[in-house]
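Subject: for your reference before the review

Hello V.,

The reviewers asked for a structural picture of the protein, and I figured it would be easier to keep everything in one thread rather than splitting it across files. Below is the amino acid sequence we used in the manuscript, unchanged from the supplementary table.
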Amino acid sequence: MGFISMLIGQCKQPRGWMGKLLTQGMNRAHGPMTDWALTKIPIHDQRHVLDIGCGGGATLLKLAGLLPEAEIHGIDYSPVSLRVAARKSRHLIGQGRIFIREASVSHLPYQDTCFDLAVAIESHYFWPNLQEDLLEIRRVMRFGGTLVLAGGVYFGGKFDSRNRKLAAHGRMNCQTLVELREAIRGAGYINISVHEEQDKGWFCVAGCKSPDRAVGVSPSA
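And here is what came back from the structure prediction:
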C-alpha cells in the first residue's frame, strides 16, 4: 500500500496513534470549509441534529454553538475518532447537549423521523453504498428536515485531476456535483441546492425530506 492510499485509509477510519493525530488535524483543516457550508443552509430552530462521521467533534461544537437549544448527536465508526470527540466535547456531553455513538451510516441506531438536520462533512465518499445510505438517513429524518453533504473531493471542479487521483488511490466513491444532486434526489429529497466554492474546491449539496403529517420522536427516546 502506497503512502497516499494509507493516508486516505486513515481518513476513512482513523486507527492507532497516527489516526489520533490525523483526527486532531482534520478538526483544524476542515474548519473553514465547514463554516462556509453551514452558511448555505437555513440554521434556525432545529432541535435534533445528527452529524454523520463526526470525526474529532469539531463540527459537533460548531452546531451546538449555532443551535444552543438543540440536542446534537454524532456517529462515527472509528473508536479513535470518538475518543478525540469525547474529550473535545466533554463539557457539552456532561450537560446533555452532545451525544456520540459508535455506529455506521448504513445502520443508524435511531428510530424513524428523529432529526431536523443531518450533516455529513468530508465523509460520504467513504460510505459503503451511497444510495442505500442516503435512504437510511432519510428514514431517521423528520419530514421537512434538511440533509447536507459537504466536502472538498468531487469530480469536475478546479481540482478535478487531483481529486480523480485521490479517489483512485483511496477507492473513494466520488461524483460530479450533478451526479451527487441526482443521487440525493433519487433517495427522496426535494428542494435540492448545490453550492461550489471553485477557488478552494469546496462543495455543499443540501436537500429536504418531502413534507408529510408524520410526527417525529426524540432520538434520545
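For the response letter, the relevant points are probably these. The first helix runs from residue 3 to 12. The chain has a mean pLDDT of 86.

Happy to draft the paragraph if you're swamped.

O.
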